[in-house]
Specification:
Blueprint (H helix, E strand, L loop, with lengths): L6 E2 L4 E4 L9 E4 L2 H6 L2 H10 L9 E8 L6 E7 L6 E3 L10 E10 H4 L3 H11 L14 H17 L5 H5 L17 H6 L13 E10 L2 H6 L6 E8 L2 H21 L11 E3 L3 H35 L6 E7 L1 E10 L2 E10 L2 E2 L18 E4 L7 E6 L1 H7 L2 E2 L9 H7 L2 H10 L3 E4 L2 H6 L8 H11 L2 E14 L1
Parallel strand pairs: 3-4, 18-19
Antiparallel strand pairs: 1-2, 2-3, 4-5, 5-13, 6-10, 7-9, 7-11, 8-9, 8-19, 12-13, 14-17, 15-16, 16-19
Helix pairs in contact: 4-10, 5-10, 9-10
Length: 476
């Protein structure tokens, strides 16, 4: 991206001045090198989002931003329903509530390392993954309705996990307002037996250890200690969520024309939040959000079963679960007043500060855990949300390293078998369901996650707590 198009407001904040049909300026949080590595499409998409009705303050992009559908991946925007604000498929994405949850095992690195292969192989066998993967859970129509309306709360009620898990899940594992009637029959048919499955692409199940502690006090309150082992799950709403996006891309295209909303890019089709079409899409999104919460909850149950086969006394306690493809009604201070706005986070993570009442009671006064996934060959990070981040970016941060290379190019550049050998030489044991899928996710196809996290930390959007190093990883 050309720096001359931007105005620097410090080392980590870059503004796209308001021009043409833009209703607000754009803002990118990153340092110079990351900005220069971004493709021009990020600039274009941030600018296009800034033209949408009812947008507040800024059209935002995070340091992991790259080209997406409509919104950039790593894009954030808030819309006020009282000012004609809209809801957009492009601002949510197709894998609705794709997200991450991290479990603290309490196990030491040195006791796990000799049994790492046993753990990874056991989890590989017990957690279904890969394209079109199916789980053991077959839901009746009434049970599917329960999942779509009650999310993780529903499956915990069936015995998949513990009630304490809900306390440490964003929204307690369930957002209200999900109407199964807003979800198409095709989406419901595609759902068949996908609760409790990892999927493919960039989704993963990773065994990690705490390599570095930056904030000992916060780390202790999160249950994180140096050289302790964690397990992180990354997946979303599977085929159901994708079909919701596909269905409503067409419906909102018609709504955009109906309400006279000019669209700069096909995937930015939208509808007023309070319109019948907007309400219906929001309801379908809420169903898919709940489905993803339930999916990660069931996988958590399976992980505990697998872990206990190798370490019978291990306790995999949930640190936190947070999504990064969502739109949610939240209260934020705008121009000195608290307003209720619909925050779209497309490949961006919620990061509430210490005073938010939505936080679990143990994290009150501390801040929300923020889980930033890296690659299977680098590192991941746990951060904590800040009040500064609430003010600057609607309590939002990046969601990962961000791609620097397309999947197609990555497949032409690397071979899965060679990648396995390279990672094994670094002490990282990988199990994958597809060699081509592994090549797509080669660590070198991504930006440097440490640079991305440093930008978030130095911009004040969130604060570093610990760095996690991968030991073993399962890919779809």
């Amino acid at each position: 991206m050309e720096l001359k198009k931007l105005i620097a407001e410090g080392e980590y904040e870059w503004v796209i001045p308001r021009q043409g049909e833009m209703k607000v300026p754009g803002k990118i949080y990153a340092h110079r090198k990351l900005i220069e590595e971004m493709d021009e499409k990020v600039y274009e998409q941030v600018t296009n989002v800034a033209c949408l009705p009812g947008i507040q303050k800024f059209s935002l992009a995070m340091p992991d931003a790259h080209w997406g559908y409509g919104f950039p991946i790593g894009g954030v925007a808030a819309f006020d329903p009282d000012q004609g604000g809209i809801i957009s498929v492009g601002g949510v994405g197709f894998d609705v509530n794709c997200g991450v949850r991290t479990l603290c095992t309490g196990l030491d690195l040195e006791e796990v390392r000799p049994k790492l292969k046993d753990i990874v192989d056991t989890l590989f066998g017990i957690v279904p993954a890969g394209v079109g993967s199916r789980g053991k859970i077959s839901l009746s129509s009434s049970q599917v309705e329960g999942v779509l309306t009650k999310g993780a709360q529903w499956v915990v009620g069936l015995g998949y996990g513990e009630k304490e898990d809900l306390e440490f899940t964003e929204e307690r594992g369930m957002v209200p307002g999900g109407d199964p009637g807003a979800v198409s029959q095709k989406a419901l048919q595609r759902e068949k037996r996908q609760v409790g499955t990892l999927g493919s692409g960039n989704h993963y199940l990773e065994v990690q250890w705490v390599e570095e502690v930056y904030d000992p006090s916060t780390a202790s309150k999160f249950g994180l200690e140096k050289n302790k082992v964690t397990i992180t799950i990354h997946c979303g709403s599977r085929a159901l969520g994708h079909q919701v996006g596909t269905d409503y891309l067409r419906i909102l295209a018609e709504a955009s024309r109906k309400y006279g909303i000019p669209i700069k890019e096909r995937e930015l089709v939208c509808a007023p939040i309070d319109s019948p079409e907007g309400k219906r899409y929001f309801s379908a999104v809420n169903c898919a959000i709940n489905y993803a919460f339930a999916n990660r909850q069931v996988i958590t149950h399976l992980v505990r079963e697998g872990l206990n086969r190798v370490f019978p006394r291990a306790e995999a306690k949930l640190l936190y679960d947070v999504g990064h493809n969502t739109c949610k009604l939240e209260n934020h201070r705008i121009d000195g007043q608290e307003r209720r706005v619909l925050v779209h986070r497309k490949g961006a993570t919620r990061a509430f500060g210490p005073q938010r009442g939505e936080l679990p009671q143990p994290y009150q006064g501390i801040g929300q855990p923020v889980i930033i996934g890296g690659t299977m060959g680098t590192s991941s990070y746990i951060l904590v949300g800040t009040e500064t981040g609430e003010e600057k970016a609607f309590a939002s941060v990046c969601h990962g390293a961000g791609r620097r290379m397309s999947r197609k190019r990555a497949m032409k550049t690397w071979r899965g078998e060679r990648l396995l050998d390279e990672l094994k030489s670094k002490g990282i044991y990988i199990r994958g369901h597809s060699m081509s899928g592994l090549a797509e996710e080669a660590p070198m196809a991504y930006k440097d996650v440490t640079e991305v996290v440093e930008a978030i930390h130095n911009a004040g959007l969130a604060r570093k707590v610990v760095r996690l190093k991968p030991m073993g990883c399962i890919k779809g």
